[in-house]
Amino acid sequence: MRLGELEKLLLNYLWKEKLADAKQVHSHFELTRGGSLNTIQSTLDRLYKKGLLSRTKCGYAYTYSPAVERKELLGSLITDITQELAKNDSDAILEAFIDISTQLDEKSLQRLEDLIATRKNNTGKGK
């Protein structure tokens, strides 16, 4: 799955706000980004059709909310891109991951080590 720049902006906005209609989203981005209400509406509809947003009819408009958590989407996107580009080259995936990890602070690196240790323990127990 590919996401355009506006799609990413709208997802981030809805993860933060939890619930909004197209007019609320447009009002938020109107001054900083520009663009028409129609563009916002069609982008929200595209995200809904991709299964990333849920929507509820409220009068004549839809109210949108995230259908997936941020970490769930990140995991899916990372899996898609690594399968597409690295295929079965786990060394390339690990090397890229190490390159990314150089941008992490100490607290995040410790969290990563903890997650790896937990994964190793769970794998050793037959999970």
Describe this structure in words.
The structure is a single chain. The protein is mainly alpha-helical and about 130 residues long. The chain folds into two domains: about 5-65, Winged helix-like DNA-binding domain superfamily/Winged helix DNA-binding domain (Arc Repressor Mutant, subunit A); about 85-125. It is built from six helices and three strands; from the N terminus they run αβααββααα. The longest helix has 19 residues, at about 105-125. The relative contact order is 0.10.
Write the layout of secondary structure elements.
Layout: H1 5-17, E1 20-21, H2 22-30, H3 37-49, E2 53-58, E3 61-66, H4 70-85, H5 90-101, H6 106-124
Antiparallel strand pairs: 1-3, 2-3
Quick structural gist:
The chain has 127 residues and is mostly helical.
- Topology as H/E string? HEHHEEHHH
Low-confidence stretches: none
Question: What does the overall shape look like?
Answer: elongated
CATH class of the largest domain: Mainly Alpha
Structure class: mainly alpha
How many domains would you count in the coordinates? 2
CATH architecture of the largest domain: Orthogonal Bundle
Major sheet summary line = 3 strands, antiparallel
Tell me the number of strands. Answer: 3
Average pLDDT over all residues: 90
Provide the spatial order of strands within the biggest beta sheet.
1-3-2
Q: What is the strand content?
A: 5-15%
